[in-house]
Design a protein that fits this description.
alpha+beta, Translation Initiation Factor IF3, 4-stranded antiparallel β-sheet, 6 helices
Amino acid sequence: MPLFGNSQANPGTTWEPKAAETRLAHTAGVDPAGVFSSDLSVSEYVLLGEAGFEPLGFVVGSSIYHVGLQVGRWSQNQELQVLSQAMYSARELAMLRMRVEATHLGADGIVGVQLKMQMYAWGQDVLEFVATGTAVKATAGNGVHRAPDGQAFTSDLSAQDFFRLLAAGAVPVAFVLGTCVYHIAHQSAMQALRQTGQNQEMVQFTQGVYDAREFALSRMQAEAAAAKASGIVGVSVDVSNHVWGEHATEFLATGTAVRRLSEEHRLPATSAKPTFTLGLDS
């Protein structure tokens, strides 16, 4: 089984838009007199401070990718490896550029990571992958919260879940993903005819979807192991057809890889605990 992750691992070879340099130069992470920007809500901003972190700036990474064409056999379940590679490469470029911005700000991590995909009217087979998040820095800890490779951690956890994770003595390592673009076989006319009016499992479809989902989950798990994480929280698996038609489907598994810290880095028991208040007059 091929593993497509980490194909663009060298930040020095990554194109970075010049327009971002002006924005980052006036951000709190670079200029002491600058202002921070973030996609945090007021509650998340306050809670982040209680956890011992301060926001540095809103960071962005983008890649517009032409998704190629690969033909699958009409009656056969099979992975479309050319398309799987394209979907991996585009997302990794976007994630890497977001991390480059965070590194420029001197961040220890990126919270609230969102990975979106959108199409434009001027290219039906062109997809833009956008990674966004808020770069943050620990007010104490001397970089202990960074990923094992010394780079900023990435996480799609909410500020509330991030706080709880730190309180439990753990820290995010990386936002990990696994993807598989799979061709689900068509049914022949005779197969469709034999199933008319009957309750029965469609084994060919079940097997194809099972295999594709397992590929995606296995690759996500392999990324977490490569990042030296001890586990993954918040796993989800999304299914999309995108631009290929109804029988070519992408299975995308995502989650946040985490690792344990030593006991002295656990949040003190006196730290504020997140609460939720529901008004009775609503």
